[in-house]
Amino acid sequence: MSQIICSAISVGILSGIWGFISSPLGLLCWVGFVGCTSYYASGGKKEGLKKSIICNMTGVLWAMMIIITSEHFGSSVAGAVMTGIFSFVMCAQSKFKLLSFIPGTFCGSFSTFGAGGDWKLVIVSLLCGAALGYFSDMGGIWLHRIYQPSSQKS
């Protein structure tokens, strides 16, 4: 069985489980899928997991800064200005290798806005999603090792 089919099986099974358990656990299913997508988009494996989680979390932080400062100044103009400033920050932080996954930062940010600023729920859901991505990736690798023809095993 090919690596992509093994990965697809693993992703399908674990995504189905996530879809089933996330809401009863009080988590945001869609934010979990954002975390999972972020994991894969960051390149996966342990390095991608670390980069995805850290960038997602900084995105949550910057979104909360936008929300808090906008509420403090109380105008839509302030919200637009803060959005511009912190969008700059979200891109500029990529000068640091560990913070270089800009899409992951925006994933954390838009998830926070989409959840109405419920940052605690977003953080837990994103972390679960990152775990979903990691374990589905590792599950695909494991399945492939089991099902590859013995002539191809090293």
UniProtKB/TrEMBL annotation:
InterPro entries for this protein: DUF1097 (IPR009476)
Pfam families in the cross-refs: DUF1097 (PF06496)
Keywords: Membrane, Transmembrane, Transmembrane helix
Membrane-spanning intervals of the chain: 17-41, 75-91, 98-115, 121-143
Record's keyword annotation contains DNA repair: no
Keyword Transit peptide among UniProt keywords: no
Protein name as catalogued: DUF1097 domain-containing protein
Source organism: Acidilutibacter cellobiosedens
Lineage of the species this protein comes from: Bacteria, Bacillati, Bacillota, Tissierellia, Tissierellales
